[in-house]
Design brief:
Layout (H helix, E strand, L loop, with lengths): L1 E4 L7 H7 L1 E2 L8 E5 L11 E5 L6 H8 L6 E4 L9 E2 L34 E4 L15 E2 L1 H12 L5 E3 L13 H12 L3 E5 L2 E2 L7 H7 L3 E5 L14 E2 L4 E2 L4 E2 L1 H10 L2 H15 L2 H21 L2
Parallel strand pairs: 1-2, 1-3, 3-4, 4-5, 5-6, 7-9, 7-10, 10-12, 12-13
Antiparallel strand pairs: 8-11, 14-15
Length: 302
Amino acid sequence: MKLHIATRTNLNEELFKQAFEIVNNPDEADFILAQSTTNPLWDRKKTVYVAVEPPLAEHRLWCYSKFDEFHTVITHNPDTPKDNQFPFTATDEAQYYPSRPNPSVINRYTRENTTIKGRGVFYAGMIGPYEDVPNSFGGINLTKVRRILGDNFAKNPASKVIGIGRNGQTTKVNNWRVDKSNQIRDSGCDFVLALENTMLPNYVYEKIWDGMASDRVTLYLGDPRIEHHIPLNCFVDLRPFFNKDTGEIDCEGVNKLINEMTQEEYDEILKNARLFRETAGKKHQELQDALTNQIIERIKND
């Protein structure tokens, strides 16, 4: 059986190579494995689509609209009655499995001195070009909130706000996750803002992991079910400050929370996050392999 791996995936590609003959031509393949996007001209009935990205860009909106036509869809928020759609993990408590980043990729470090200094916030987040993209497929577009919160935190000289669309940045640097980790460490910021581009059930990307790995208290807004995957005592939940109906964020309330947090509260959050992150890397690999094997068996049993 021949498999064409159309785009780089977050699955264990070595397991696919052991199970199938890998070919470079989708037309001669029995199945096509595609992540995030796929060619509209390819046969969707033989396409396994891994929907790691939310439906913001036009090509992903198209892919989401074609879920019913794909052979198999792996997605954050599947329509479970449909026999071709599956979640990234089998159990709800394990849904924190990040779609792209392996938590073990970034070196975790523990600071000896956690004394709160300037109460600065580190935030790496692109602004634009999706502010006007309507909410779709059960998600809420947070692109506008990214700009508002970034502008808010940038007012504090102790903060560092970067990303495409800010300070002349137009592209990501090579090894951007490692670069971001180094910048967090060197910034001296006390907090890291982890703000997804979309509020979509079970969609948790790399940002919260980078905050935990850098041993800073993480401010999080994104997955509306985040407490099912990561204990709430490991980070600061910004949902109480966000009005999902209007799309407005209470910056004054967020600033008040940051400025009034005691050292004891700060250290307690760090302690809980350190305990949780110790298992993240191992579980990521286990869940990645389990999902890969699930796809292999589904293809073989077709």
